Automatic annotation (TrEMBL):
Its main location: membrane. It comes from Microbacterium dextranolyticum. It is found in: Cell membrane. The chain crosses the membrane at residues 7-34, 54-76, 88-117, 129-152, 164-185, 197-218, 239-258, 278-300, 321-344, 356-377, 389-411, 417-438, 458-482, 494-518. Signal peptide: none annotated. The keyword Aminoacyl-tRNA synthetase does not apply. One of its GO terms (cellular component) is plasma membrane. One of its GO terms (molecular function) is lipid-linked peptidoglycan transporter activity. The keyword Membrane applies. It is a multi-pass membrane protein. This is Murein biosynthesis integral membrane protein MurJ. GO terms for biological process: lipid translocation; peptidoglycan biosynthetic process; regulation of cell shape. InterPro entries: Lipid_II_flippase_MurJ/MviN, MurJ. It comes from the Bacteria.
Amino acid sequence: MASLGRASAIIGAGTLFSRATGLVRSIVLIAVIGSFQSRAADAFSVASQLPTSFYDLLAAGVITGIIVPQIVKAASHTDGGSRYVSKLLTLGTVVLVAATALLMAIAPLLIILYAPTMTPDQHALTVSFAYWLLPQLLFYGLFALLGEVLNARKVFGPYSWAPTVNNLVSIAGFGVFLAVFGGPFTAVGEWDAGKVALLAGTATLGIALQTVVLLFFWKRTRLHVRPDFRWRGIGLRQIGSLAWWTFLAVVVGQLAGIVQTRIVTEASGDASVAVMQYAWLIFMLPHSIVAMSISTTYFTRLAEDVTTGRSERVAANLDESIRAIAVFAFGFTAAIGAASVPISRIFSNSAEGAVATAWVLGGYLVALVPFGVLLVIRRGFFAFQDTRTPFFFSFVQAALAALGAGIAWAAVQAGMLPLGFLAAAVALAQSLSTFVQLPMAVRLLGRHTDTGALRATWFALGRFTVAAVPAFVVGWIVFVVLGGADGWLASDRLLGAIGASIVGGAALLVYISALALLRAPELGMAVRTIRRIAGR
């Protein structure tokens, strides 16, 4: 447990720092291109979705869910797994290069697929951004491959700290843009080739350099790799059978995402794609710091337990990781929910934009807890090398999210929902679909391990709920007393940050006090985690 705690702290500290610099990056980007009511920002957001969406489609589920157990197995080979990893990296690089070249060739068609209602000039700007941003697919893939090899070899720190390099490069590049051109440029007609190249080129350079950083830590893996095109013996048939279902799960998720983007693009010029991206960024901040750092280290142990035939330890492992994640997630839900307007003001050019972003953020926040729990449950399936079952509950979630987006658009068409609330409704529909997905996933996991042993886990989540409700109420009261959305908290970015700290801090103080009154044992776990992260 101590080693897991230290590893989680290293990852959590790195993620916290990278996310903090990522927030600064986003603020500078908004100064360049805007967010709320910015058609140029919507164009950039749609283009920046392409490399991440297709990375998810091609590699994300395979790399994070399948490769780690395979590398853990390969460690028992006489060479420590060097030949296996050499073949794996060579194959991955070839696939990523080919996919990147193909997507760049069909970039204009992809934009039509994602945002068919864009005006011709907005479509042209989006395509220009896409040509500069699509090479990120190659670097995202290589970064994930190298990072998961490091994680599988228990070298956890570099993968979580490297994104800081990307953020610093982007901040510097965007700062140069502001110094040369000024900003924000929210109208499509204000963008020329030079501005597009500097903004989007900087974004891609940052992703490339964060990948290069991992190479400086490769010696710690004690693996000796070289290009190896002899892929026979790598277990492609086994990987392929496992990856097939993961690929299908990602496909249905991406199809739902395309439906959401196509619908939300209808609101371009109001709260649209850019606003959703920044709301998602805020939502993912606590998830990345807590859920990803904890689940990454526990997943390596899960894979080892299953590989060595110690499956009886799986339920206890899942219980520990879920409670470690949820005790934070409930507190963050209460704090961010109460402070949603001042937090959103940091990523908006006006108080009006902050309120619009806060509605979308609220829609996402509803599912912060089940989103983190699902991450653990899904990795439980992957540890058993079962990728088929997660496809089915992922399909249900994606179908419900797409259906919810369609219902939201129909409500707008019928005059029942203002166009400005379309993005918030789509975000809420996605969150509600997660509440259907989670109980399905837990029930199906019972085929592999005794999920009845998780009863204590659900009681713990009940305690967290009891503590989170008064925390949110007190935080919201503080927000209203300080002037609410019409007061100083939403008047500018700096005051928004100060206001968010006061409101969120009040909510967290009540949450911690409530946990102490309930004598929740997880409070001690949370305090130790925070101390480790602070120490790192």
